[in-house]
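Lab notebook, bench 4. Still working through the backlog of constructs that have no structural model yet. Next entry is a single chain of 153 residues. Request: give me the structure tokens for it.
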Amino acid sequence: MVSAKKKEMVTAMRPAFTRTLFYFFCFMKKISAQTRKDERIYPENFTRILDRLLDGYDNRLRPGFGGPVTEVKTDIYVTSFGPVSDVEMEYTMDVFFRQMWVDRRLMYEGPIEILRLNNLMVTKVWTPDTFFRNDVYPLHNDSNPLPSVLLDK
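Model written out:
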């Protein structure tokens, strides 16, 4: 049996709960509308950043040309090793090879933290001339001929 006092309290709580629920849905609708607005702006910002990114950029010159050397960090992850030829003193290995460096000429201001470049843009950006010492075969079999490059803010 519900007492009259408890019944009044439950009835009094309903308007407050309804009002809170109403404000919550209004808030969610506003966030949803803001997200759609940002989605419309995003491609325009992205295109503008890419258009201005290479203005006056010369990919023949290393970053900081005339100043200190450009430090290039490399990661090599060996996925397979072999076969090994004792007679020829040769071996074969498959690796993931990643290079990282800072090119201040590509700094940009914008809402996008990371820019992933397509293959056309990658050819316009300076990349290190990496080589492997004592390499028997100067040509490498690249299983992924398309470079994967991203710019981080």
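Notes after review: Residues 4-13, 31-41 have pLDDT under 50 and may be disordered. The helical segments are 4-53, 119-122. Flag for follow-up if needed.
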